[in-house]
Design a protein that fits this description.
alpha/beta; 2 domains; Spore Coat Polysaccharide Biosynthesis Protein SpsA, Chain A; 19-stranded parallel β-sheet; UDP N-Acetylglucosamine Acyltransferase, domain 1
């Protein structure tokens, strides 16, 4: 006997008001569906089939290897979705069929394992939860303790809507019993659909349907609106932050730290409020990040300090400093002890060990050696209107304030450029390069200017 899982991911999610398939909306940097597939994978299922419909090609592209997609067309309800999956699976015989919605990202593998473990000897088992606000969920109907059916919210009467125990569209079925129940479904309801909940009622009429309650209703919360998406994202964020704090990461205000699931942190890192770390970003021990930092796919090294800044595909070395108000674009690498300071932008640039770009500069397509200093207002003019060109600045170089380095150009080791220079030719090692017009003074200019008669405003016609 095998455990075979069906994940329902064909819905449009009309309340999201988006062309994006609902199950691909992100939580913690991953699609809703990815979290669900992780939970299903934790059951040891022998086969996983995802039922797709709206945005089928996009959903297929998001599936991991080994997970098969089947298309539900037309989309005639949850019962029809499971029919479609069973047809694609072939004979299910005495197999256990696990059915899970694709929009419940907080669902845990242990909960699904408990559901499967409750099935033997019964035709079906279902997860239930007592919701503070059960609106939108199917209500569990009981005769005493015995489950006799589920009524969808839209079809429920006033007394049934007062029931707070709900079904959360997560079931384990005995395969042959499920196939028989599905064969007897009709579309005689408000939506004109085949309801999977009607199959549960049919099975309950012939045997015991077991209910498996979950302790925390948040775990089984689905996503049908942006409000619900934000709600589950907040829970997922709290879980991630709690995990990293347990692992030794300091967070001054964890409610204002936003981490993707793919982020890696080392014990001893310190995160201030307003930190957003996305993609594959890593933060090493002793680093201090924030306040107000956005970093995606970036590396922040041991003991580094990054604050009030944006990093995209950047690498910050050990003890390096970034910000405040710096923008490190893709391809930037700050070596150990380097600095990109206030209102500095870099792109495809290496700032060597101990070198500094302290403020008000744009450095692009550049390699800076060790121990160099780039003065305020410096710009590497790397684009000639058609192509990008490189600038090379050697070791122990002093670039004067407001220097324009017109690439391609090389400034040799120990060289100096005068403030306000436009450097268009290579500077030899140890040389001083100055390119300015000679200053000219006009004596008595202010007095002569004061004696000039003021211009009269033109007369109005």
């Amino acid at each position: 006997m095998s455990l075979r899982a069906i994940v329902l991911a064909a819905g449009r999610g009309t309340r999201m008001k988006s062309d994006r398939p609902k199950v691909l909306f992100p939580v913690g940097g991953r699609p809703l569906l990815a979290w669900v597939l992780d939970a299903v994978g934790g059951t040891g299922a022998d086969e996983v089939v995802v039922v797709v419909g709206h945005g089928a090609d996009e959903v297929r592209a998001a599936l991991p290897p080994g997970v098969r997609a089947v298309t539900q067309e037309p989309q005639l309800g949850t019962g029809h979705a499971v029919m479609t999956a069973l047809e694609a699976m072939g004979g299910v015989g005495g197999d256990t069929i696990l059915v899970v919605p694709g929009d419940t990202p907080l669902l845990q593998p242990g909960t699904l394992r408990a559901l499967v473990a409750a099935l033997p000897g019964a035709p079906a088992a279902l997860l239930t939860a007592v919701m503070p606000d059960p609106a939108g969920y199917g209500r569990v109907l009981r005769d005493g303790e015995r489950v006799v059916g589920i009524v969808e919210h839209r079809d429920a009467g006033p007394e049934e809507r007062a029931i707070r125990e709900v079904a959360v569209s997560t079931y384990a079925f005995e395969g042959a019993a499920l196939a028989r129940a599905l064969a007897g479904l009709s579309r005689g309801n408000e939506q004109g659909e085949y309801y999977l909940t009607d199959a549960v009622a049919a099975l309950a009429a012939g045997g015991e349907v077991r209910a498996v309650p979950v302790a925390d209703p948040a775990e089984v919360q689905g996503v049908n609106s942006h409000e619900q998406l934000a709600s589950v994202a907040a829970v997922a964020r709290a879980r991630l932050n709690a995990f990293w704090m347990t692992a030794g990461v300091e967070m001054l205000d964890p409610g204002r730290v936003y981490l993707d699931a793919g982020v890696t942190l080392e014990a001893g890192a310190r995160l201030y409020p307003g930190v957003h770390l996305e993609g594959g970003t890593t933060v090493a021990a002793g680093a201090e990040v924030g306040p107000d930092v956005f970093a995606v796919d970036s590396v922040i090294g041991p003991g580094a300090r990054v604050w009030y800044s944006v990093l995209r595909g950047a690498e910050v070395g050990e003890g390096a400093q970034v910000g405040p108000f710096a923008s490190l674009r893709p391809g930037t690498r700050l070596e150990a002890g380097a600095k990109a300071g206030t209102f500095v932008e870099t792109k495809a640039t290496v700032v060597g060990r101990g070198s500094k770009v302290p403020h008000l500069s744009y450095i692009g397509d550049t390699v800076i050696g060790e121990g160099s200093n780039v003065g305020a207002g410096t710009i590497t003019c790397n684009y000639d209107g058609r192509e990008k060109h490189r600038t090379v600045i050697g070791d122990r170089v002093f670039i004067g304030s407001d220097t324009m380095l017109v690439a391609p150009v090389t400034v040799g080791d120990d060289a100096v450029t005068g403030a306000g220079s436009v450097i268009t030719r290579d500077v030899p090692p140890g040389a001083l390069a100055v390119e300015r017009a000679q200053q000219r003074e006009v004596p008595g200019y202010a007095a002569r200017k004061a004696k000039q008669a003021p211009r009269k405003a033109p007369k109005k016609e």
